[in-house]
Write the structure tokens for this entry.
Amino acid sequence: MRMAELSAESGVPVATVKFYLREGLLPAGERTSPNQARYSAAHVQRLRLIKALTEVGGLPLASVGVVLGAIDGAETPHRTMGVVQQELAGTPPKVSEEAAEWASGLLADLMRRHGWKEHPPAHRTIANLVAALATAKELGQEKLTDRLAEYADLAMRVAELDVEVVAGLTSLDKIIETGLVATVLGDRIFAGLRHLAQEQVSREVLRG
């Protein structure tokens, strides 16, 4: 297909497609003349993936580039998901040293009891979680942190569901792409379901 067809099929404007090509986010098409190239269904899929990562997942283009680089770099699905999680985590906010020390101890104890291992790729995720726990303590919301083990149990079940989505796939490319989508869009889906459930429960419990 030509550039115009690629744009129409993917829903991405021609100018944006050209920008992605220049930035290396989209592989070059098959050159048919000095000014023309032919594109395939793989290009459509890549554009839809970029669109999902930016528009739904909320990732900046710099992070999208890192994620796509991991995909194209023939990393294992596990390592690629680690890259995705770190880009989703972003930069941890600053909290007081005292609260961070308390939160780090709480989290380390929970991970030990659940048999979770801390690996270097997860450091940004852990730093963000420590910051969130520390902030809860500083706000006097210990009730939230007191239920941390129960939240961890729920998180493990969600993670099992996420992995089940890709467990039956045989293509490495499909495993990585599906796992990526499950991680990025799964966060948005679960957050949306949680908010709907909160509305229902709060209506029943807190309305009076």
In short: The chain has a mean pLDDT of 86. The first helix runs from residue 3 to 10.
